Amino acid sequence: MTGARAVRAAASIVVVLSLAACSDAGSTRRSTDEAATAQPSPSIRTLTAIPLPPQPPPSGVIAADMRQSSRDAALGRMEVWIDNDTAGTITPIRITYTDPRLHRPVHGDRLRAVPSQSTRGFPLYLPARPACGQAGTGGSVEMAYGDTTVTLDVDDSTDVVGRYVDARCAEIAVARVSTLAWDDQVVDGPVAVDSTATLVLIVRPTGIPGHELVLDAVTGTPVLTSVGSPYWSLGTHITSDGPDQRIELPLMPARCDPHAFQESGGATAFRIKLHLDGKPQQLILRMSPAGAASAIEFARQSCGLGD
Length: 307
Fold this sequence. Notes:
This protein is about 25% helix and about 35% strand. It is α+β, with helices and mostly antiparallel strands. Strand 3 and strand 4 (about 105) form a beta hairpin.
């Protein structure tokens, strides 16, 4: 290597070493500065799960109670719930509910196992013609499982059977004077947001003279209600041999949250307060499936919840 080349090479080495030294020094200073300014990480709180108290041992008791949801009512049924507080699983092969107010025993549906310390509900379809005027305060259920048959008094704290019998017997009595039904159509065309509709009660007297029906009021539902009032005040007189009538009731949504339409088992079941031959009565008048679909769709469109 010539002398000039040696000098240039030595100079290059000095420059590279100087840059490396500067880089290392800068990196060291940044690391030191970051370490000085870094904030300590917050400690993570550890929660210790509290163990659940042990479940009490089975009492050996089997109990029954009566319930009815709005969906059950719409389907013409109630449910007897079996509480199995024994140590083993019970698998019913027959469930029969007996009540003097129902004319005849009714049989449980969807029979399936009831595990230890759990409950299961079994549908009971209600008869179309209960024993109107028959006194009674409760019923009992006979349940057969395996080689065992037990008879249980049924706790009916909300009077499911009594309320059904009263309502159904009122329907039967009113039908001797006139049939009542809702028109399936509540709107004639497209529905705009915040629009109203018309609920129409169709009245067809039987033609047999001697009875009078006074329709006092109709109450709304959780989804459908009167325009400007929670109920429709009527005061309409109907004679059993009078003409047919169409009673128009202005209709609007009672609420517009989507949850209301998901819980719509009783959305189109309207309570009618009336007097039959001077005696106060109440009955639940449901829309047909087609009418109910039409009314619910109107409410959705009026609420701005349409597809």
